[in-house]
Design brief:
Number of domains: 3
InterPro entries: CysN_GTP-bd, CysN_II, CysN_NoDQ_III, G_TR_CS, GTP-eEF1A_C, P-loop_NTPase, Small_GTP-bd, SO4_adenylTrfase_lsu
Number of strands: 21
CATH topology of the largest domain: Rossmann fold
CATH class of the largest domain: Alpha Beta
EC number: 2.7.7.4
Strand content: 25-35%
Shape: globular
Helix content: 10-25%
Pfam family, one: GTP-eEF1A_C
Radius of gyration: 23 Å
CATH superfamily of the largest domain: P-loop containing nucleotide triphosphate hydrolases
Subunit structure: Heterodimer composed of CysD, the smaller subunit, and CysN.
Bound molecules: guanosine-5'-triphosphate
Largest sheet: 8 strands, antiparallel
Pathway: Sulfur metabolism; hydrogen sulfide biosynthesis; sulfite from sulfate: step 1/3
Order of helices and strands: EHHHEEHEHEHEHEEEEEEEEEEEEEHEE
Number of helices: 8
Length: 420
C-alpha cells in the first residue's frame, strides 16, 4: 500500500462549548501523544482552577493560544498516531467566522466530526456544519453526540438526536454517516466501547477513525498535474535538464505515459517521475514530484499536465457555489483575484444566481448580495482560462479561492459546478 494511504485527515466542528477542545485533548491524551511537560502544565492549571480532573480543554486551548499570536493562520493542525494510522486534525476555532475556518479545515479532510451537546440536541450550527461538510465533499461524516454523561447515558435522548440528524443528512445526500454517543470528558466511546452505554452497538470513535475506508475516495482516474515550478538548473553538469515540479492533484503518473499539456495542447510522453529521494515508479495524489518529458516543449507555471483523452475544461466562464468570508458584501460587478491550482488570474462577478438558506436549503434568487458566512451560487468571468473540473468530480481542480486585491485577504472559497 502506498505510504500516504494510511493517513486520515479530519476536521472537527461544533458550536461553542460543545466540547471540541475536550474531545481533541482526549484523543491526543488517550493516544499518548501529549508531551510530558505539556501534560504537567495542564495538570497544574487544572489543579489551580480547583478541578478534580485533568481539564483537557486547557491543553487544546493552550496550543490554540500559541497559534493565535500569529495572525494569518486560521486553522491549527495537530498530529497523532496509533499503530494503524496517522491522523491530522484540523482544529478550527468555533465561535467567530466559523464558515471561513470550517472551509479552510474541511476542504482537504477525509472526514468531518460534527459535535453536538446531548442536552441541547441539534442546533442551527449543526445543520450548517453538516451542509458545509457536504458542500466541501468531505467523504465521511461523524455526528458525535457528546456529553452523554449529562443525560444519564440515555438511549432515548441519543436516538432522537440521531434520527433528526439522519433525516437532515438524507436531504443533503451525505454518502457515509456514522453517529456515535460519547463523553469526551469521561472518555466514553472514545477509545473503547463504554460500559455505560451497553445499548450502543457501533464502534468507538477512535476505532472508526482507524478503520474508515478512505483510499477509494481519492481520484486515481483523471490525471491532473498542475505545474508549480519549471526546474532548469542551467549547470554545465546537466545542460539539458528540465523538470516540472508540482503536487499530483489526481490520477497516477509513470514513465512511458502519454500526456498532454494545457493550455498549449502539446503532447509528449513521461521520461521519468522523480522525488527528492530519487526516481519513483509511480506518482499518485498528493505526492510532490518532478516530472520529466521525452520532448522539449514550452511549459510554464500554471500549466496542467493531463492525458490526451482525459483533459480538464479550459474555461473562462465559471459557475460556482461560494462561501463568502468577508465583512463587506459580495455583489455582481466586483473584481477579485482568483487562485486555482497553481494558476492565478483576475475575475469579475457577473451574476449572483441565488443565496442559499442553509437551514431550510431554500434558494433565494432575489438576493442581491452575499454577506459574511453566506453561501450562494455565482457566475464569474476570468481574465485567463482556468484548467478546471467540476468540484463534484475533483476537489483539487474544482476548488478555488477568491482574494481581495487591496487587502490580500482570502474572501471567498468556491466550488465549481460548471464551466465553459
Ligand atoms: N460533562 C461533560 N462535560 C464536557 C464534556 N465535553 C466537554 N465538557 C465540558 O464542556 C465545556 C466546554 O468544553 P470545551 O471542550 O472547552 O468546548 P469547545 O467546544 O471546545 O469550546 P470552544 O473551545 O470555546 O469552541 C468544558 O467545561 C468541558 O469540561 C463531556 O463529555 N461531558
Amino acid at each position: 500500500m502506498p505510504p500516504t494511504m494510511d493517513m486520515l485527515r479530519f476536521a472537527t466542528a461544533g458550536s461553542v462549548d460543545d466540547g471540541k477542545s475536550t474531545l481533541i485533548g482526549r484523543l491526543l491524551f488517550d493516544s499518548k501523544s501529549i508531551f510530558e511537560d505539556q501534560l504537567s502544565a495542564v495538570e497544574a492549571a487544572s489543579t489551580a482552577k480547583g478541578d478534580d480532573y485533568v481539564n483537557l480543554a486547557l491543553l487544546t486551548d493552550g496550543l490554540r493560544a500559541e497559534r493565535e499570536q500569529g495572525i494569518t493562520i486560521d486553522v491549527a493542525y495537530r498530529y497523532f498516531a496509533t499503530p494503524r494510522r496517522k491522523f491530522i486534525i484540523a482544529d478550527t476555532p468555533g465561535h467567530i467566522q466559523y464558515t471561513r475556518n470550517m472551509v479552510t479545515g474541511a476542504s482537504t479532510a477525509d472526514l468531518a466530526i460534527i459535535l453536538v451537546d446531548a442536552r441541547k440536541g441539534l442546533v442551527e450550527q449543526s445543520r450548517r456544519h453538516a451542509f458545509l461538510a457536504t458542500l466541501l465533499r468531505v467523504p465521511h461524516l461523524v455526528l458525535a453526540v457528546n456529553k452523554m454523561d449529562l443525560v444519564d447515558y440515555s438511549q432515548e435522548v441519543y436516538d432522537e438526536i440521531s434520527d433528526e440528524f439522519t433525516r437532515f443528512a438524507d436531504k443533503l445526500n451525505v454518502s457515509d454517516l456514522t453517529v456515535i454517543p460519547l463523553s469526551a470528558l469521561k472518555g466514553d466511546n472514545i477509545v473503547t466501547r463504554s460500559a455505560n452505554m451497553p445499548w450502543y452497538e457501533g464502534p468507538s470513535l477512535l476505532h472508526h477513525l482507524e478503520h474508515v475506508h478512505v483510499s477509494s475516495d481519492r481520484n486515481l482516474i483523471d490525471v491532473r498535474f498542475p505545474v508549480q515550478y519549471v526546474i532548469r538548473p542551467q549547470s554545465s553538469q546537466y545542460p539539458d535538464y528540465r523538470g516540472y515540479a508540482g503536487t499530483v492533484a489526481s490520477g497516477t503518473l509513470k514513465a512511458g505515459d502519454e500526456i498532454m499539456v494545457l493550455p498549449s495542447g502539446f503532447t509528449s510522453t513521461i521520461a521519468a517521475v522523480e522525488t527528492a529521494d530519487g526516481p519513483v515508479a509511480e506518482a499518485f495524489p498528493p505526492m510532490a514530484v518532478t516530472v520529466r518529458l521525452n520532448d522539449e516543449i514550452d511549459i510554464s507555471r500554471g500549466d496542467m499536465i493531463c492525458r490526451p483523452q482525459n483533459a480538464p475544461k479550459v474555461a473562462q466562464n465559471i459557475d460556482a457555489m461560494i462561501c463568502w468570508m468577508a465583512d463587506d458584501a459580495l455583489r455582481p460587478g466586483r473584481k477579485l483575484a482568483i487562485k486555482h491550482t497553481s494558476r492565478s488570474a483576475r475575475a469579475v462577478v457577473k451574476d449572483l444566481e441565488y443565496r442559499l438558506d442553509v437551514n431550510t436549503l431554500h434558494r433565494d434568487p432575489a438576493a442581491t448580495e452575499l454577506n459574511l458566512n453566506d453561501i450562494g451560487r455565482i457566475r464569474l468571468r476570468t481574465t485567463q482560462p482556468l484548467l478546471c473540473d467540476e468540484y463534484a468530480r475533483n476537489r483539487e481542480t474544482g476548488g478555488f479561492i477568491l482574494i481581495d486585491e487591496n487587502t490580500n485577504r482570502t474572501v471567498g472559497a468556491g466550488m465549481i459546478t460548471s464551466a465553459d
